[in-house]
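FIELD: query
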Amino acid sequence: MKVKTTKSSNLVTKAFFKRELKQELDQELRIFEIRIDIKLDDLRREIDDNAKKYRDEILTALDPTVKELKDAHEERTIVAHQVAEVRDSVDDHEQRITRLENKQIV
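FIELD: result
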């Protein structure tokens, strides 16, 4: 018995199979890339949300400390001004005492 071979378009050739496989793999790769991009975007958003949450928590926790530092700075400014006034007053008193002492010696 002899087998007849024909060049029919219904035959699946290696080239056809490779072409179809390549197209299917390309499509699967595009779908995979889209899924990865979506997951990366979701992960990026989650990281951003967590970073904002932690930043807000840190800033809220630092508020009392910042207030204390601000109050301490204002107090140092006031004290420095008061010390300058006392120094001026003491210098003036020293000059007056020196003059009085000089008058008594004469």
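FIELD: remark
The chain has a mean pLDDT of 88.
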